[in-house]
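Researcher: Please predict.
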Amino acid sequence: MQLIAPAHRTRETSRFACHALELEIFNVIAKAEIKGLVTEAQSEAFLEMLAGINIRVDAATFAMALSATPHIARRHRLSTYDASYLELAMREGLTVATLDQNLQKAASKSGVKRFAAR
């Protein structure tokens, strides 16, 4: 799961994400519950915390999935999900917040910076 942040810090606290974010979030939570890593109550608390974050979902993700995203996925050998986040960051001049090593390398090669928490 990746989030995209503004490339420069502003007073605005919104973060950007691709259209599939909600599905990705629940997929991670469901897997963690199945593996016994978190309880349902912990998952619900996490979802409540996420609800308090201003996340803007990018409306152009699907349109780009038919043009730029496949090229990015092929070039960097990324999943289409990861390529969509990189495409969004490249298009909007945003940073990428991810722990995924392959996405970090692709972002670096593409001139996209990684988001660093303060």
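Model: Residues 6-12 have pLDDT under 50 and may be disordered.
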